[in-house]
Amino acid sequence: MKAAVVLKEGAKVTEEELIAFCAGTLAGYKKPKSVDFITASEMPKTATGKILHRKLRERYLTEV
């Protein structure tokens, strides 16, 4: 599982820190194995501002 993360302006976190945080709060099968940091403009959204999860999946399935 991969996580696509948009950081708030000025926030700093590493991939390892984020995965460790998830390991402490999520079930093992939900914990991401890797993290991609993307910009807010790269996050696909609908006209109402909802995230298009289907588009994100398509993006990462084609990268493999």
Labels describing this entry:
64 residues; alpha+beta; GMP Synthetase, Chain A, domain 3; two-stranded parallel sheet; 12% strand
What this model shows, in words?
The protein has 64 residues and is an alpha+beta fold. The protein has a single domain (2-63), classed as ANL, C-terminal domain (GMP Synthetase, Chain A, domain 3, 2-Layer Sandwich). Helices cover 34% and strands 12% of the residues. A two-stranded parallel sheet has the order 1-2.
Write the layout of secondary structure elements.
Blueprint (H helix, E strand, L loop, with lengths): L1 E4 L9 H11 L8 E4 L15 H11 L1
Parallel strand pairs: 1-2
Outline the low-pLDDT stretches: none
Helical content (DSSP H or I, runs of 4+): 25-40%
**Which class of secondary structure composition applies to the elements?**
alpha+beta
Shape: globular
Question: What's the arrangement of strands in the largest beta sheet?
Answer: 1-2
